[in-house]
Each structure stands twice: as structure tokens, then as C-alpha cells.
Input
Amino acid sequence: MIPRPIQDALQKIVGPQHLLTQKEDMLTYSYDAAVLDPVMPSAAVIPENTAQLGEIIALCHENTIPITVRGSGTNLSGGTIPQSSGIVILTGRMNNIIEINEADMYAVVEPGVVTATLAAEVEKRGLFYPPDPGSMAVSTIGGNVAENAGGLRGLKYGVTKDYVMGLRFFDSQGNYIKTGSRTVKCATGYNITGLMVGSEGTLGVLDQVILKLIPAPKARQAMVAVYDTIEQASETVAGIISARIVPATLEFLDNFTIRAVEDFSKAGLPTDAAALLLIEVDGHPAVVAEEAEQVKALCLKMGARTIDQAKDDAQRDKIWAARRAALSALAQLKPTLVLEDATVPRSKIPDMVRALQDIAKKYRIDIGTFGHAGDGNLHPTILTDRRNKEEFHRVEQAIEEIFDKALAMGGTLSGEHGTGIAKAPFLEKEAGYSSILFSRRLRAALDPKNILNPGKITGV
Amino acid sequence: MADMKELANLVKELEDQLVSCTRCGMCQSVCPLFEQTRKEADVARGKLALLTGLMDNIFTDPDGVNKRLNQCLLCGSCAANCPSGVNVVEIFIKARAILAEYKGLSPAKKLIFRKLLAHPGRFDTLLDWAGRFQGVFTRPDANAQGTSCARLVSPLLSHRHFMPLSTTPFHKTLPVKGLTTTGSGPRVAMFTGCLIDKIFPNVAHASLKVLSHHGVGVTIPSGQGCCGIPSLASGDRDSFTRLVDHNLALFEKQPFDVLVTACATCTSTIKKLWPSVYKNPSPGMQKKLTTLSEKTMDINQFLVDQVGIEPLEGFFEASEKEIVTYHDPCHLKKSLGVADQPRQVIRAAGCRLKEMTGSDKCCGMGGSFNIYHYDLSSSIGILKEKNIEATGCTTVSTGCPACMMQISDMLGKAGSPVKVRHPMELYARALEKHTQ
Output
């Protein structure tokens, strides 16, 4: 519980209906999409504008109240769980697209704008905002920036960090900070923008985001390659990359996932296939045609049983519907789903796929593997029931081994889900103690009272 | 009131269904209520978390959870889009029943559900009289939708433009022992539904006309009651179960192949909720409910999939084709996957179908949600009204009388000339023109 006078002050800032303190509401802000224990905040506030947001932060600083900012609460590493039971700031009402500048190809948005809403608005103007995390129908730009979210197009188009040109945010004391600009180039000051992206609400609270937009590709060609062995499929991924072709999307589905998708959506997938690759090339029509043929030849050379190119939009939609159904189809099999995102250099995809199969066998657990093979970011998806303590223990051991394997291959613990609480204890394995210490000092200097999303990334 | 631990045990009945929610939060993208309030307690994920909280016995009283649980349209948008396939509507309905049984129904609800709705004869008589006297309290608005508004400022009615009760409910026009017509092909029984019987009898007349045109033999037993959804939405599983018993007994008297209704909500209730929420069914009863559920169909679906309708296109010049837009009732599209058939009926009726933006977005009615949360219901409804008007149509068609009420209210308040018609009304009208 936060003291009554502070509650009153918060209420004065946002109005009574935008301050929530009842236990029932607190329960609904105690979790996100990560498989972790919930922690209830002591209040949730819903500011409407910059002024209110600044006042809330200043008040929290003065009274040393921890702050966790929450967009749609879809993140998979526990970044929005209010671990210190402070207050949760909801960005739902700060959801305006302030500007879409077609001449200079950028957009300025408030943090609560839903990713898909922005993508659709931009598309109407013939422009393109490429980052497309799986949750984009609900996820917010603020959350995407805070977690450095990725998506299916990382291979060619990069991830959220590649599109953030500038930010406006409040520091832990409620000072308004401007970083970056509306220009393509900007060489003034520190690259605070880069530091803020992926900082998971530990260095400041976002107020505005300036995003880079690009012209929409004129043509695209999707295709599906079917493989009898998982090695052939993963070797093809490495082969396409080394042939200097950069598809917009290059996705992998293993047999476990194929069967789950087929049971779920009856899409007509070959359930006897060991693996599928779903590939899309885009760009200038002539280049697309040439690259599509090259990819096709390469797949066949690497031993693909068949490769089919989408003949129209309907066929293309069918291909991507199968990919989008992967997580849903797996989610229906067991009550608990742990979605990992350990990422390896893309040439190591064959090794990683093999390692995941061994781990599933070793710990006697179900792992469906699909994901962004083209950028080395697979999603081993573990299906379990958290109530079965013995099995869940084996799941935790398996996750740790997945981390170890990824790091041994020169990879990272998280390609796109962030560190949060879930991966904080393992970060030292990847970065070493001095990196953690550096981060803690940085944090302590910028947030001396440790009120910005305490416990995340660098641990306590 | 029993203690919270006992309630926790009751909620445990739902545990296996509750754990399938992975908290992914995708329901936020489709919940019409969340779009308005942006509060997690208003979306399925939040409500499922609250029920889990009740099960874990972390609250000192059930009122806060109960209040939040009831702030829901039961439109099923979340369930239709749930990656994990959580059966949200069934969970919420069962949870409402558990909470209502634990807390006891309010006296007003007891009167309505136990003393009136559960006794179809009494309910019919009361509303017959109300239909005759309603002019004393309300005045017709002489508008395209045919709604009325209150003569006096009334806090209960607010500024609603509500549909008046018909002076002659459908059941009054039937022979006392019910209606039986002969025909070829599959034999059909028709479940009328309260709103069609008492407010939109024309939909039932139109449905009969259409079925007879296609030579379908129809049985309509007299004395039909409510499908039970209003009782269930308030957690009154006893009244619901009594209504199911009553209706089931009526429809057992004569054999039929298909049970059709022109009400999306009734169809969805009979198909989905009769077999799953009936209180303590015997194995024999369970079998009856399942069999009936399998035989039940929306009337548009029946006409298109089983009878096969010929487009009457040739009989209408392109210039005289009326522009009609179609609203997908949640209980048809999201609950039963019926979306294409009503559109085919509208096209067959010689209309030019023009899709609106968000045709499958909830209209905000949600049955009793409209009564208890009229402001929220209206904010959702206004979005629908704007999307309808943006098509430039002259008629909006939809396969659910509850949606028809809400949309009429919204259009009426906006002073819109757009008419509201069931696809059966459009098709029956076209058949009439065609035969002239």
C-alpha cells in the first residue's frame, strides 16, 4: 500500500477514475506473458499526457516509489511485472500518432500506440514500418522500444532499434530528456537513443518516439520448401545466406510444430515432413523474380522434396497463416508454454537445431521448434504443465542448457524478448561480471533512488 | 454467506479451463470493451486472472471480482481469437453461476428470472398486456427504425430509443396447438425466441414465408419459452435449466430433422450452452441435449447449406438494387462461424451488399450489459452506427434481434434514415416482389 497522501496526490494528477488501487485491479497488473510468479503493484495510474506523466515521475522520485511502465503486458521476460510492488504506469491513454511525415519518412508517436495500428496507418501512405513482433496486434511501440522487439523480418530489415531515430523521455527525477532527431544523420551528444532502446524501463520513462519509415517494397514472392531431414532444411538456411541472398523472411518449422499446426488448422501441411522452410523475398519486381528462382534452385540442390511458390495473394496468405498459427497450435497442447528465444549466428542454425533435439530427448520434454531461422533466432517452445513440479524442474534445466549451447556457439540468451526477470540471473554468463557492474553503475548514477523498474536486467 | 474458502473450492471446478490461459494478452486486440476503457480487468486475460485469484482464495469478499466479471458483453470476440483456445464464454457463464449461487440472486433478478421468465405462460401474458399499454408511457418516434422514446424523463430508460413491444406477438398468430405445415425435404422445427416473438414478429413471419416458398415443412410448437441466456448471464443456472427442460419437452413431441432459429443468440445458446451448462444432467439428458445441439442451425445457414437458394438477381435492375450492409452478430460469426450464408441470402434477395469497416465488431448490446452499462454499451454502439452510415447504405441487415435493437437505438439517436432488417425480411420481401 502506498501512503494515503501520495494516493491523493496521484489522484489529483490523473483524476479519480484513472487511479486504481483496489486489490482486484492490482491482481490484473501483476503478470505479463512470461511464465513467472505474479507480483501485485500498490497502485496503477493511467496518465493522459506528457505533463501528467512528468508529475507522476517527480512525485515517485520524491517519495522513493518504484515505477514499472506497462503497455499491453505481452512481454515474455517479466519486464512488466512490478517486482518491488511500486506503482504501475499504464500507457493506454497516451496512444496518439502525433505525426506521420511522408516527405521526410518518419513518424512521431506516443508510447501507447499499438504497433499494428501504426503499421496500418503508415501502409496507407505507401510507407513501411518493418518491425513485426508476434504480438504486434496488441503490443505497443513503447513496449517494443523498451524491449527492442524483433519479428519475422529481422533478417533483411532489422529490429526495433534500427528504426528509432529519437526519443523524448523522463529521467528518474522527472527531468525531460531529448535525444536523437528527425534527421537521417545526427551526431550530437551521446547516443542516448541507442542506450534507451532495450533498457526495459530502467533508465527512463518514454514520452515520445521518433521512428524511421521506409518505402514499401513493390513486389514480393512467398514460397514453401518441404524437407525429409531437418539437417537439409537447416543447411539450406546457411546456404541461402552464404549465397548472399537476403530474403525478407526465412522461417523454419520442425515436424512437431508442423503436426501441431496441421491438427489445429487443417491447412494441408505435409505431416510426414521433417521440416519446412517458409521464405519470402521482396523488393523490385525484377530482383524478386530473379532471387525467387535462385532460392528455389538452392532449396532443391540442398535436397528439398518440393518447393512451391505462391501464385497469388491468397496462396501467400495461406503460407503465412500456417506460420502465424504455430504458436497457437502449440499453445493448445498443454497448459503451460515456455517460449524461448536464444539466438545464434545464423551459420550455426544446423548445430542449434540438433542441440535442441538432444535437449528434448535428454530431459524428456516436448519442444516444438519454429522461428526466424534466417536471423539465427529460433523459438524452441517448451510445452508443459507448471503444476507438475517435477516436470517443470526438468524444463528449467533444459532452458539453462539451451542458454549454454547458444552461448557456446557465440550466440545470445535473447534475440528479441529481453532480459527482464527471466534472464537476469543468466546475464553474467553471456556478458561477464564487469559488464553487469558497468550497467549497475550506470544505472545507479542515473537513478540513484533505484525507482525505475527495479530488479530487471541487472538484478538487484 | 458461506466463507471464501468454500467459494475457492467451487471455482476449482473451472481450474482445468482456467490454466489454459497463457496470459499472452492477444484478447486485448479484439475486446470491444477494452477498446473503450483500456483496463485489464475489462479484458478476458484480466478476468481469468481474477477467477484464478478467487480459486487461490486471495480475496476477502467476492464482490469486487463479481462486479468486474459482470462488466463483459459475453460477445466471445476473445474466445474466437484466443491462440490457446480458451473457452472464455463458457468459463465466464459458469463463474457467474457459481458466484450468483454463492451470493444469492438480487430480489429483482429473482422476480424476473424465477417468477417470470422461467414460466413462459406468465411471461407471455404479462408482456401481452404491456404491449397494449406501452403507449401510455412512451411515444413512437416516427423514424426509419420504428423506435420509441420515453414520454417522461426516466432515469431507467435514459435517452434510449427502444423497440416497442409488438401489439401482436408472433405466438398469438399461431393456432393454439402450434403450427404444422407439410413439405418435402428435411423437416424443420422453428424456435422463435423472445425478442422475435414479442418485438420483431415480422422476422418470424418472413422466415415462415421463406421456408414455405422453398417447400420446407415446418413445426412450431406453441408455448415456447426463452432460450435461457438472460438467466444464465445473471448466473441463474436453475431458471436456465428449467427453461431448457420446458423447451426440450415441447420439441420432443414431434419429429424433425433440423431445429432452426432466426435469432443468432438463441442458436448459439441452444448449440453451445444447453449441452455444457445444464445443471447436473443425467446421461440420458446429456445425450438429448447433445443430439439437439447437433440438429440446431441458424436459418440463413440452413437455407444456403441445406436448401440451396437461387439468386433472384435477374429480377432486379442494377439501378433498383438496394444498398445493404451486413453486421455480423457475435453469436453467429464468432460463436458458430456463420458469416457467409447471411450475406448470400442478402445477395439472393437482390440487394447490393456493401461491406462496412469492422462488420464483425460487436455492436455493444450484450443482452443485459446494455441495461447495466448503458453508457459503455452506447460508446461501443456509436462506432457501429458510424461504420454503418459510412457505407451509404439504406438498410443494415443482421441475423440477431438483439443486435437489431441496439443498432436501431444507435441509428435512432443519430437521426439516421437507415432501416434495420433481418436477412429473412429482405429475402421474403424479394420473394413477394418476385411472385407479383
The interface with chain A takes residues 19-20, 22-26, 28-29, 38-41, 45-46, 49-50, 53, 58-59, 64-65, 68, 83-85 of chain B (CB under 8 Å). Chain B has three domains: 4-103, 170-305, 308-435. Chain B has a mean pLDDT of 90.
